[in-house]
Automatic annotation (TrEMBL):
Gene3D superfamilies: Cysteine proteinases (3.90.70.10), YVTN repeat-like/Quinoprotein amine dehydrogenase (2.130.10.10)
Naturally occurring in which organism (per UniProt): Chilo suppressalis
UniProt feature, compositional bias: Basic and acidic residues: 695-707
Protein name: USP domain-containing protein
Signal peptide: none
PROSITE patterns: USP_3
Biased composition (Low complexity): 856-869
Transmembrane segments: none
Entry superkingdom: Eukaryota
SUPFAM superfamilies (alphabetical): Cysteine proteinases, WD40 repeat-like
Stretches the record annotates as Disordered: 682-708, 848-869, 888-913
USP domain ranges (all copies): 497-984
InterPro entries for the chain: PAN2-PAN3_catalytic_subunit (IPR050785), PAN2_N (IPR048841), PAN2_UCH_dom (IPR028881), Papain-like_cys_pep_sf (IPR038765), USP (IPR028889), WD40/YVTN_repeat-like_dom_sf (IPR015943), WD40_repeat_dom_sf (IPR036322)
């Protein structure tokens, strides 16, 4: 920015007179290779051969640089290469004093007028007033107000909507500079060295006025509460440029700060004339002298080293204007020789001016015809396009698209003589040449009309099923300055709130929707409160409350995902993805199943932690009274309690432990890895469960710890008793464990005799709940690894059964459906040798004979019901828990009475066992992986229990679906990930508890 002291009756010769020229001439600066900025572009502006640059500014909305010269001409340049964008005249004789950019265009200020033009150069408005005599500077108060100052005794506040001005009288000798630090104060600097601070909301009153320099002010700038200024001092009646920058603390000037220095100075190599803070850095400023020496200052550290570089100017006192981009990646300098110089950091060759710049509108390129000489003989005239016909007809040389389809000739099959005499050496076959064709002859088969029709029918028959649009991943691109590309009203017409997927780790939106519509879980999280900083239960409760009050508008789980990234266990399990987005190589099926196990365990422990702290605070309140006499052998109620802080938190951080709270522990200290991948750590016996009489279940050193249950464990916990038996010495060991999600265990290979998956999905769930397998394990009696059978028995059934359906390698199970045995397998199974493990064999697909299993002929004679197909899920499951720990599962159809459809029920009818409990489960939600590019996770949720209404939740897209679409998984692009079966009694009980009386 340039200030015109000649208009104040001060000649420009007083700056450096001849007697003092040698004394104040700056020394030559050696180029510093460690300078932070270096020149990127230097252009001669329009009219630069006659006029100098008097104004320069970076565009706040686009990648443009604006400049104005002494001749009243404005030019804009695009990007770091300084490509000329627009150029236009705003006044016939007056120079351009200042330029600011707004969303609709620019405002350029001259001595007596204010011009508004759009960026393409079209003028919109020119404002003139009798109060505009010698205008100098502009400041944008808001989107509808401008503040103008100059070498006159008044300020002008202009309303841009009504084009009406308000005159503000001032006591100072004009206003040459208007700058603000982002707060409510604006600094008004006059040419005589006075600076006044005014409130933007009421600029008529002056907050504070002080003298910054004795002779005159050159420039100033503000950042927060700091104000920097440079100017001239009066030395023997001559104005001499001061070789330092003065830093002022506005708080000290206003009297709201006690202690500290009011101002301090920063020495520079050359007397500065222009100043500007770097917006992207705190306490960094740029000082420019008239001869082009630039210094980067540390305002808060006067003794810090300065980075100095040189602007190549043609003469001394040539640099007249300067501006800094919003990103601080670019500096622009204008000189009186008509040049504009762009600087950027050394290693940044493509600087950007704004963090979020919108696209600049350019003119359409005019495609011209090539120029060809008459003597040119190699030019291809077919490259010149024909002009379009106005009548809508086409030229004769434009063929239909089907004529441009590439068809390759079908090669001739390999000669049977070659295949007959071929010898294989690994993957390579060798055969003598039968000499049936000529050398280098490529035979082809001529396709007849019948062959083409047969091929077309084959292609139509095997056309893959297309993926519906509402299952595909939605590409959301929000436009900051205009309408969005996606129509949200067409995506969701149900009134249910959706979740945005623009943030990292938003792959869990489908699981969040399932937890939100699971009423018992939602009620538990809404009632949870604690003082922990990053509590996922609190964040989920806040998200559910926001979804309740959104009125159907889409929400964003930003707070939950921010807290989710701080959990170290989530990072250890690989659940936190990088910020660059979802990688195509990520296994979404395994990822969402691990997330399901993690979130249930995390919420369980957070609820227990809150309950523990509440009990400890209650005990501390009771123990605050004078202590009573106790016996010496009495154990204190609370030991080693953490001291509470003022906000209710404890100094001691909660340590993450694994879930297990049912049944007695064993004498072993090692950890056991369950089917779902979570280790089991035995700690003690629950007071609510009976203690078994087996000696192996006694605790070491008689240590018993209470294992509490939370609302989550009461809903999802599956209690199991695992029996390990050595096949050599028949030693048995028992231990109780608890899991919150059941992981399906698929059979290995094709179904054979005794396969566990013969009954379809129902038998698969039964085999996974009561897992039975054979694996080598260490035996204390044998003192070596021996074959050990592991058999699980169910102790307790949960109200909500969460089932993880496995990884992508089991996809064939859901696509192909039930497989039939081949005669070869049946024949081989019938004549095989007896299994060495006999009744204790738990190997799925074992090909040897077993006394308790039917033969292949008997298995092939049984007929499976349609519900036993792998690709169809049962809507309802009837699970019976027997007294011996085994379970019986029936697919309960609404039209047919349930019949035994697995071998467990028919087998256990012969034993003297009783039914301990019986639960009827209904499918309430399902997470599905869509095998698209990119892959996507969607959720089926039963939103209404009475009408059995199902909806598909795909981030912001929510559509109703039928029940048949939910349970069928025969399509190649649709794979189940997580299933939720809920008992009707649990939902009814929780709704009755939540209903106010």
């Amino acid at each position: 920015m340039e200030y015109h002291y000649s208009d104040l009756c001060l000649t420009s010769d007083h700056l450096l007179p001849d007697p003092y020229a040698s004394e104040y001439t700056p020394q030559y600066l050696i180029p510093n290779h460690n300078a932070e900025y270096e020149v990127r572009s230097s252009v001669l502006v329009d009219g630069g051969d006659r006029f100098g640059v008097t104004a320069a500014a970076f565009d706040k909305f686009e990648e443009l640089v604006w400049m104005g010269n002494q001749g009243g001409h404005v030019t804009s340049y695009y990007g770091p290469s300084m490509q000329k964008y627009t150029s236009f005249q705003i006044h016939e004789s007056e120079e351009v004093r200042d330029i600011i950019t707004v969303e609709q265009g620019i405002y350029a200020l001259t001595k007596s007028s204010l011009r508004h033009q759009i960026r393409r150069g079209i003028p919109k408005n020119t404002y003139k007033s009798a109060n505009m005599t010698d205008m100098q500077c502009l400041y944008q108060v808001s989107t509808t107000k401008l503040l103008m100052g100059g070498h006159q005794d008044k300020l002008l506040e202009l309303d841009l909507t009504k084009m009406k001005e308000i005159v503000i009288p001032i006591q100072e000798e004009g206003c040459a500079v208007l700058r603000s630090g982002g707060g409510s104060l604006v600094a008004c600097g006059s040419a005589d060295g006075m600076v006044s601070l005014r409130d933007i909301r009421s600029p008529k009153a002056t907050e504070h006025t002080f003298r910054a320099h004795n002779a005159c002010l050159s420039d100033l700038d503000m950042q927060g509460d700091l104000l920097i200024s440079c100017g001239f001092a009066d030395s023997a009646g001559v104005a001499v440029a001061e070789p330092y920058v003065v830093v002022w603390d506005v708080r000290c000037l206003r009297g709201t700060h006690t202690g500290g220095e009011t101002a301090w100075s920063l020495q520079t190599a050359s007397p500065p004339l222009l100043l500007h803070f770097l917006p992207a850095f705190s306490g960094r400023a740029v000082a420019v002298s008239g001869d082009g020496h630039v210094a980067l200052l540390h305002v808060n550290q006067p003794a810090a080293n300065q980075s100095v570089f040189q602007v190549d100017t043609q003469s001394s006192l040539s640099v007249s204007v300067m501006d800094v981009s919003a990103t601080s990646q670019a500096l622009v300098f204008g000189d009186m020789t008509g040049h504009l110089h762009l600087f950027s950091p050394q290693h940044n060759h493509e600087p950007v001016f704004n963090n979020f710049s919108r696209a600049t509108e350019f003119a359409d390129q005019v495609v011209g015809l090539p120029y060809v000489s008459f003597k040119e003989t190699t030019f291809q005239f077919s490259t010149v396009p024909l002009p379009p016909l106005s009548s809508g007809s086409k030229w004769f040389n434009e063929l239909p698209p089907e004529f441009f389809k590439k068809n390759y000739r079908k090669p001739k099959p390999v000669d049977p003589e070659v295949l007959k005499t071929m010898k294989m050496q690994g993957p390579i076959g060798y055969a003598p040449n039968p000499r049936n064709s000529r050398r280098n002859q490529i035979p082809y088969v001529e396709d007849t009309l019948e062959d083409l029709n047969a091929l077309k029918q084959t292609e139509n028959r095997y056309t893959p099923q297309p993926i519906p649009k509402h299952y595909q991943k939605m590409d959301l691109r929000y436009n900051k300055h205009g309408p969005n590309d996606i129509d949200l009203e067409n995506c969701n017409k149900t009134g249910f709130p959706g979740l945005e997927s623009t943030m990292p780790n938003a792959y869990c939106n489908s699981m969040l929707q399932v937890l939100y519509y699971t009423q018992p879980v939602k009620s538990t999280l809404l009632a949870h409160t604690c003082a922990k900083e990053f509590c996922l239960s609190c964040e989920l409760g806040f998200l559910f409350r926001m979804l309740d009050t959104s009125g159907g508008s889409p929400c964003q789980a930003s707070n939950f995902l921010r807290a989710f990234r701080t959990v170290p266990e989530a990072a250890a399990l690989g659940l936190i993805l990088p910020d660059r987005g979802l990688d195509a190589r990520v296994d979404l099926i395994a990822l969402i199943q691990s997330w399901n196990r993690f979130i249930l365990h995390q919420i369980h422990y957070e609820i227990l932690e809150t309950r523990k702290k509440e009990k400890e605070l209650a005990l501390l309140a009771q123990n605050s009274s004078p202590p009573k006499a106790r016996a010496s052998n009495t154990k204190p109620l609370v030991s080693n309690l953490a001291t509470p802080n003022l906000n209710g938190q404890f100094c001691e951080e909660y340590q993450y432990t694994e879930i297990e709270f049912l049944g007695p522990s064993t004498e072993f200290d090692q950890e056991e890895i369950r089917e779902d991948g979570w280790p089991v750590r035995e700690e003690g016996v629950s007071e609510t469960e009976p203690v078994l009489s087996n000696e192996n279940h006694e605790l070491q050193n008689s240590r018993h710890s209470e294992r509490e249950e939370s609302d989550i464990s009461q809903l999802f916990a599956i209690g199991r008793n695992q029996l390990n038996r050595c096949l050599k010495c028949n030693k048995e060991e028992e231990r109780d464990s608890v899991v919150l999600a059941c992981a399906l265990q698929y059979p290995t290979g094709a179904p054979r005799e005794g396969s566990e998956a013969r009954g379809g999905f129902v038998e698969l769930v039964r085999a996974s709940l009561a897992a039975r397998r054979s694996t080598p394990a260490w035996c204390e009696n044998c003192s070596r690894f021996t074959p050990t059978t592991q058999r699980g028995r169910i102790v307790r059934l949960p109200p909500i059964l969460a089932i993880n359906c496995g990884g992508p390698h089991e996809k064939a199970y859901w696509v192909k459906g039930a497989q039939k045995e081949t005669p070869e397998v049946a024949k081989r199974g019938g004549s095989g040798k007896p299994c060495r493990y006999g009744l204790h064999c738990a190997r799925p697909g074992c090909r040897f004979k077993h006394p308790d299993r039917p033969t292949s002929s008997q298995a092939s004679s049984s007929k499976n019901s349609p519900q036993d197909s792998h690709c169809v899920l049962p809507q309802q499951l009837l699970i019976r828990l027997q007294s011996d720990g085994d379970i019986i599962i029936n697919d309960k159809s609404p039209t047919e009475p349930h019949t035994p459809n697995n071998r467990a029920e028919s087998k256990h009818k012969k034993k003297n066992v009783t039914i301990q409990s019986e639960e009827e489960y209904t499918l309430s939600a399902a997470i599905v992986c869509v095998e698209d590019n990119p892959k996507n996770l969607v959720a089926y949720v039963q939103t209404s229990k009475e009408d059995a209404q199902w909806h598909l939740f795909n981030d912001l897209s929510i559509v109703p679906v039928t029940a048949d679409e939910v349970i069928h998984f025969g399509a190649w692009w649709k794979t189940p990930c997580v299933l939720f079966y809920t008992t009707t009694a649990a939902v009814t009980k929780r709704q009755a508890e939540d209903t106010p009386s």
